[in-house]
Amino acid sequence: MFENISMAFSAIRANKMRSFLTMLGIIIGIGSVIAIVSIGDSMRGLMADLYKEVGINRAIVYVSYAVDEYRSTDYFTIDELEQIENTFPDEIPYLDFQNSDLQDAVYGRNRVKISYSGVNKGYDKVQPVNIIHGRMINEDDVKNRKKNIVLEKKTAIKLFGTDDVVGRSLRTSINKDLDDYYVVGVYEKNLSAFAAMMMGSSGDGEAYCPYTLIATPDTWHFALNCYVAEDIDQDAFRTKFVRYIAKMTGRPEELITYYTAKEEMGEWDMILSTLSVAVGAIAAISLLVGGIGIMNIMLVSVTERTREIGIRKALGARTRDVLMQFLTESAIISAFGGFIGVLLGVGLVSLGGALLHVAVVIRPSVIVMAVSFSAIVGIFFGLYPASKAAKADPIDALRYE
Questions:
Q1: Which H/E stretch holds residue 207?
Q2: Which pLDDT value is given to residue 111?
Q3: From start to end of 230-344, where are the E strands?
């Protein structure tokens, strides 16, 4: 066994360039498979983190688009929202209309276009809000429609030149109400580059305000944005809540859409997983190309070393010994190509993650599977050339020039 390995390395060293070019198909194939699978797994991890930011127990409820024509009762008012809050105080810890308004904010000579998100009391209990100065929107702000806002840190710096701006006012218009609005808090967003890109903002800055500033008593809203308590039976509550909304809107239960963030995350995970497998399978085709390259070179090697084979057999080498010699050589070429491919794939993915400031996921099982598969490819495609060498007639081989 050790003799075969030594002879294989000697043959590879004797033809370094040819051996490397033979490995190239395996290197590209293994590197591509590892990189693609790792990118897919990393994307799935990023999507999971993104939905943790959004809230995995979040649900959007509305009358389905399948209705022939919308009626006024298909929409929701502030009174109905408060009615739902009072009916499900334990099951729904947070509820709003997920409304927003994009307006210019002015302080002195500075002007920033801010995207205002209307939130209800307790928003910071269901969503991570890192308050660094002041406080979050509270029940008094919402109930009395106070013109108080909570600015995002970068927005505060753009507008005021500093982030400690609690107590200051700015001139803006929310829901066409131009007036002075007071900063009661400043928060900082700690999102990955991917999460920031996906969640984004339509303006130059962001801020929270009481949802009652955007949703007035005489306005209707298409959907409810709910955060459901985690310690309850989700399926039982879903059935109960859909029945309640159906009765409120006067629509059949099948026309009420109850869509959860968990369901949406599952759909994304399935899409990314399927895409990763499909693209990885396409990349794996290059392994077959690399295997054919190994077979081709090994056939050339058998032809070039015909006299060597004849001498070995004349000196007593068995057919099995010659077979193992060439199989070992093809397996080593393929395994080394797989090893280099692993380094290439892992290196590229790690470099990309470092540049994008994204945590990459590299599964050891994929690496083991890739290297094992590359060795199997080498043995499989080296079997025919090795068999041809092993069956060579020693007399004919010795006469070969």
A1: strand 205-210
A2: 94
A3: 256-260
